Amino acid sequence: MEIKDMISSTTVIRPDGRQSDELRPVRITRAFTDVPEGSVLIECGNTRVMCTATFTQGVPRWRKDSGLGWVTAEYSMLPRATAERTDRESVRGKVGGRTHEISRLIGRCLRGVVDMKALGENQIQLDCDVLQADGGTRTASITGAYVAMVDALRWAQRNRRIRSAKRVIKDSVSAVSVGVIDGRPMLDLPYLEDSRAMTDMNVAMTGSGEFIEIQGTAEHRPFSRDELDVLLDLATKGNRELQAAQRAALEELGAAE
Amino acid sequence: MEIKDMISSTTVIRPDGRQSDELRPVRITRAFTDVPEGSVLIECGNTRVMCTATFTQGVPRWRKDSGLGWVTAEYSMLPRATAERTDRESVRGKVGGRTHEISRLIGRCLRGVVDMKALGENQIQLDCDVLQADGGTRTASITGAYVAMVDALRWAQRNRRIRSAKRVIKDSVSAVSVGVIDGRPMLDLPYLEDSRAMTDMNVAMTGSGEFIEIQGTAEHRPFSRDELDVLLDLATKGNRELQAAQRAALEELGAAE
Amino acid sequence: MEIKDMISSTTVIRPDGRQSDELRPVRITRAFTDVPEGSVLIECGNTRVMCTATFTQGVPRWRKDSGLGWVTAEYSMLPRATAERTDRESVRGKVGGRTHEISRLIGRCLRGVVDMKALGENQIQLDCDVLQADGGTRTASITGAYVAMVDALRWAQRNRRIRSAKRVIKDSVSAVSVGVIDGRPMLDLPYLEDSRAMTDMNVAMTGSGEFIEIQGTAEHRPFSRDELDVLLDLATKGNRELQAAQRAALEELGAAE
Amino acid sequence: MEIKDMISSTTVIRPDGRQSDELRPVRITRAFTDVPEGSVLIECGNTRVMCTATFTQGVPRWRKDSGLGWVTAEYSMLPRATAERTDRESVRGKVGGRTHEISRLIGRCLRGVVDMKALGENQIQLDCDVLQADGGTRTASITGAYVAMVDALRWAQRNRRIRSAKRVIKDSVSAVSVGVIDGRPMLDLPYLEDSRAMTDMNVAMTGSGEFIEIQGTAEHRPFSRDELDVLLDLATKGNRELQAAQRAALEELGAAE
Amino acid sequence: MEIKDMISSTTVIRPDGRQSDELRPVRITRAFTDVPEGSVLIECGNTRVMCTATFTQGVPRWRKDSGLGWVTAEYSMLPRATAERTDRESVRGKVGGRTHEISRLIGRCLRGVVDMKALGENQIQLDCDVLQADGGTRTASITGAYVAMVDALRWAQRNRRIRSAKRVIKDSVSAVSVGVIDGRPMLDLPYLEDSRAMTDMNVAMTGSGEFIEIQGTAEHRPFSRDELDVLLDLATKGNRELQAAQRAALEELGAAE
Amino acid sequence: MEIKDMISSTTVIRPDGRQSDELRPVRITRAFTDVPEGSVLIECGNTRVMCTATFTQGVPRWRKDSGLGWVTAEYSMLPRATAERTDRESVRGKVGGRTHEISRLIGRCLRGVVDMKALGENQIQLDCDVLQADGGTRTASITGAYVAMVDALRWAQRNRRIRSAKRVIKDSVSAVSVGVIDGRPMLDLPYLEDSRAMTDMNVAMTGSGEFIEIQGTAEHRPFSRDELDVLLDLATKGNRELQAAQRAALEELGAAE
């Protein structure tokens, strides 16, 4: 059997009954809290991330007088997002490597769809706090943060801090995980699958179908070019569906613009 | 006019329409997230705190072989719980004084109603994360953490880690803020009132009506013994109502025990 | 027997021979060191705290151009103030929760008697370093810091940094601990009693007899409203005597003003 | 013109005269310092990284009694590896996000070719210190660290800490950067090109031609699936050549085994 | 004029009226606080340092099962020991270079006179906290810490933790500063002279007249071998007098042994 | 036998075959890396230190508008410079006492030969990173940093940041270690000897033969004035030879000026 045929040829039943190319149910709640310029709760299966977007005038010192804006992100897990309690990084006195890595990833993905010139010397800070973790927290953060960022930019337009939210946002962005489990490529891995995956890949894509980030890691078993192709097909399918969910959420509350 | 008459004699209309001795609407949601032994969302007006209780076997090193359990708490604010974004303490690299102070307060209050011998050498860690802050976050944390702790102890009983949750919990505990605003004692201050209060007091009480903590501070104007008496009356009334809400929430999901 | 009768009705002999409503001997030494604007050694029994007050022009950034002054405090224990050596917080790399909590308490109490407008854009920093700890270090710090602050303000007046020390100081402030031991309310607890107290309360009062801070904690046994009343009576008596000692000390060196 | 034809169809002259699919000169010096079990200086053009491998008996606590070994890595830049001096992370008091991210990447890549069972409960620590940075420091670190690790394992075999270095090393691993500059895919970017790249990708591959890590980022312009394919072709070519250099270096000093 | 003649030939009047080879008045108060095994206040002119010695059973992990003891020291300045307030190192979150350097110096000097075998697996921790700083705080710390250490060892002998204090202490140790000011060598520099010194040297000597530490620094003007000889003569004279003061203090309280 | 005769009278054969007054082979490589204003690799036997000098316009805040320049240094060891791997200080989160002490020593020595007025408001930062440690790393750092500093000043002169490198450099400076081993004074101790030395002394001297720093420590056995004299003779001889090596290196590359 060709690797390329893997997805369609068999009826893989996953622990949660999904097909190998099926996303977990996605729910995007806007205005989850009242105060932030953008506030979104994204739920991908049992993974739940609260994403807020803070719009502030001015940019960090190193970017002053450039005429350009800035977008940055911070990711964090609440102590009991996980089955075993994780110590707070504030108490340990430093941000861990994994947190740093994910925060940087989210920031890059969101910056990838923003026109910094149209944003002007304003800053958007995205905070992604994981309330419950069941795999895919970093990709859910990216997908949710995009919606929060759009809301913050619409707020900025209504409050005349920027001319047009649409001009600032060059494209949409979402992300999803894919992986190879027992030799089978799968879409959107929950924790149970993620911990058994030989290969694990996070793929962030724009609404127009191009890649912003690909992070594939195969600590447990290297993967071939053919497997890579299947994984990218799955990721493309998943991201298209996530972007549909983003669009639906953003149309919902209606006429913000 | 006697200070003692202040509450009843006038129809104080507060910004949110409440009487001076009226609590904000309270909502306690159990099982807010799936994984923790106890997980509660408490909402007091616009203040929302997620309280989780983690039950683990064993106690910190300094308490080993004592036959006694331990209860501890950590409090934290999400960056956009507030109108202006607050920097994360993990990023700043240290826990601030206010956070420390509140974490210790919550821990003391909860320990105050726990029979450490009946708990045995087990530990309960309470995590209070403020999703949205509108005054009274520390008192809401205490009130919510109590419910989460009861759930964690019921879990421990079902899983035979302890004999009886009821024997561990000597009494219930709740807390509420009171303060003097423009010379008038008030119950349960939202942020707007809190920032204008001359005197500010947090009062934690047991279900049987005794005090566990009184923290009154009058940086802006000292208060007299008479004012203190009125404030304590208000706090007693508020705590009774909060304890009713706790009981109602704990009966809801039915037969955990 | 009524709780209210407890103090007078019996002849309680405490380990150090004091009556239940009796303070330990207090000694306040001004100009303990030469350089600071105010430098006080306060001894309450075996507890000894060195309190210095530093007067500087200018205020922290967040308070600039407000026309108002600022008062802040830091508390610390020398490693061998205690029976077992305590590790230095500088070496551990962070200030602990207890230290933070006490520093903030001292700051609030002192700010409570200062007219920030009369102080102008000047800052007073109070440093309370415990040379020897035998209970009541935080309340001794408040009582001693007040005297150091007055000396610093007199210095500022003599050096024409402020118009009048008297106008800056709205009232005096002192603090004392009270607690319930074996069911009996007691004034001014040394370490031996403090560690056995079921209820422990620190009360800061102004010279005119009003409260600035009440911090009562009953981790080990809640206390009733009646007990609270007795404790507040004891604290009022103790603070009156401490304020007499403050006045005596401040008159001693004569005509600073 | 098809994107796939881009590489061959034109004679791109890069600032340093290379073809678009040409590596910079590579030099691998073994036994660069005397003491470590493995010590390698790798030079890729002007980028120079010192990679040491430390073999120690025992594994971190969380892995004890598993019968498995562990491989970990730390990456750091000397202050003047860069044109402008970078502050030391030891002085700043914390490891930055970029450093964390790269250290974790190197660790994963090296673990990807190690048979942890054959290693037994031993640990290999890889230290990659950049003496001079001209782009591609993280990929040079991976390529150099592999050689240092082989030397450390040969040392361990000679000293009878492991049975066979060959059984521990399942495959070789190298890494190289690729990117799109002015719309043209390029292999092995020096700093000048790297800073202008719209898309930037690091690809770690095994000697048998499979992927261990793919990290593509397109903060400045998303890339298409076609571009991705060209970049992966370039990376495959580059890694093959780097692996030849690794083999040559490892054969040089002769009969270590 | 020969440099060697400098001291005797002229009547240098220093700001405080001393001769160039004259120590400031020294006062050593034992049992300055009640709790520590050794507690000394040393005053050298206006410099005042509180030195405590803590005797504990057991040694740090790296020294276990060696049969040898350990002596270590920590130095710190209270915030207002100096004319301008110094920020606390606990608040800044790290111990500064100067503090580290001095702590290590004190530790080495005291270890230099201790027979670690006779001490057995016990530890002495010396804490030197500067209450008031007027030059020579590190040398005063050494001189005072020696007395505190002797007291702690006598305590240990009385409490049968060691056989004989005398056998542990191989020799006494004291230290003094010397320097060249306006071309003239001087003994025991107060802050005013210290800040003007071109050459500054701290010399720790044993009771039998040998050197334990010499730290000479000439950031502002190098010094010749001849000048060095004069400085060492002055230091020898000063240390002899300090050792007399140590002996007198240690005989005072009488029959500790 | 007189101590003074010790050096010449016997044929001491050291582990590496040197005479007691013989330096290890010294090699100074300039332009070791390409980017820094000064970049030197100094090898003293097996000790290898990379010294870079960074020239920047402007001085630290506390020195602004003084018209004077500043010279500062940082010392660090790579993890595997030593036989057993040393944890990185960046990972531990703080700079250790030994590192602090040495960094400060190097800074003082280099400042000792710089005319700060001629340097103007410019700063030189010296970074000394130990690639391999075999005793004498701090003295090698000083000797190497001097050469790197000269190169940086020549660069500054060529680039018209300063008028004349020669006017900035008042004198040369080098440093060497001496010690007493088994009762015999020795020059330039490698690790093996250093760890056995009873007395250990680092001596920094100017080209004109005066002392800038003397740091003698005798934790293990005090030393007499006579021994000190012999040690200083040895250090003088060693420094003269090191200064010859510095001159030779600085003349080599020819016409930088």
UniProtKB/TrEMBL annotation, chains A, B, C, D, E, F:
One of its GO terms (molecular function) is tRNA nucleotidyltransferase activity. PROSITE patterns: RIBONUCLEASE_PH. Residues 22-152, 172-238 form the Exoribonuclease phosphorolytic domain. The keyword Transcription regulation does not apply. Keywords: Nucleotidyltransferase, RNA-binding, rRNA processing, Transferase, tRNA processing, tRNA-binding. Phosphate binds at residues 98, 136-138. GO terms for biological process: rRNA 3'-end processing; rRNA catabolic process; tRNA processing. InterPro entries: ExoRNase_PH_dom1 (IPR001247), ExoRNase_PH_dom2 (IPR015847), ExoRNase_PH_dom2_sf (IPR036345), PNPase/RNase_PH_dom_sf (IPR027408), Ribosomal_Su5_D2-typ_SF (IPR020568), RNase_PH (IPR050080), RNase_PH_bac-type (IPR002381), RNase_PH_CS (IPR018336). Its EC number is 2.7.7.56. Phosphorolytic 3'-5' exoribonuclease that plays an important role in tRNA 3'-end maturation. Removes nucleotide residues following the 3'-CCA terminus of tRNAs; can also add nucleotides to the ends of RNA molecules by using nucleoside diphosphates as substrates, but this may not be physiologically important. Probably plays a role in initiation of 16S rRNA degradation (leading to ribosome degradation) during starvation. Belongs to the RNase PH family. This is Ribonuclease PH. It comes from Bifidobacterium italicum. The gene is rph.
